[in-house]
Amino acid sequence: MEIIKLKNINKVYNSKNNQVNALKDINLTIDKGELIAIVGPSGSGKSTLLNIIGTLDKITNGEYLLRDEQVEKLNNYQLSRLRNKTFGFVVQHFALISDYTVSENIEIPLEYGKVKHSERKVLINKVVDKLSLTDKINKNIKELSGGQCQRVAIARAIVNDPEIILADEPTGALDQKTGQNVMNIFKSLNKEGKTVIIVTHDSKIAGQCDRIIKIEDGRILH
Ligand SMILES: Nc1ncnc2c1ncn2[C@@H]1O[C@H](COP(=O)(O)OP(=O)(O)OP(=O)(O)O)[C@@H](O)[C@H]1O
Ligand SMILES: [Mg+2]
Prior knowledge:
35% helix, Rossmann fold, alpha/beta, binds adenosine-5'-triphosphate, four-stranded antiparallel β-sheet
């Protein structure tokens, strides 16, 4: 079943004195339950593509169908609702709040999603357990290692039970073994039925995905 369909997408960034065509005529269909790697040189448009898929960034022209929603027709309120219930985001440098505890960081999307306080604890305990962070739940982010931070970032991305997980170089800051552990978490989420899209520079990580999308200078290579 198709979950994401991009038709002739272009993304142009306009700044004062230059124009960057970050994505050029992208056509891409992703099925529910796929595990996908996006690879390509620095500056080729990988993060731009991921951000567009995640509705964090708007397309310049083309068409984006998310299930049967035409994304470019939604207003900001509708988009933020859709984003919160559909996507879990994992970024390279974790983007955790360092003065908050593990539990407080994981709670953030539940707050946005207006989940009742009484239900939050149950959901947080569930993901913390899944990512083997139970003994760290009340620790500050500052007190954790890189691999533990990345697991907290994944916990935060999945606590809302999103259908689609988007990860931008989730293993980029980790050593190989810790990176593989993180990849194993993505693989098991994928086995549970989640659609997982991972931007990576690491061919070992990409090689474990069902499909590799290569992008160069804003275009998908076939
Ligand atoms: N907000 C922005 N404003 C202007 N140009 C941008 C913006 N974001 C990205 N770009 C440009 O768009 C192009 C693609 O950037 P993008 O971040 O998608 O690359 P990337 O493939 O993720 O690279 P990396 O591997 O280094 O993360 C680059 O030329 C970049 O300079
Ligand atoms: Mg990038």
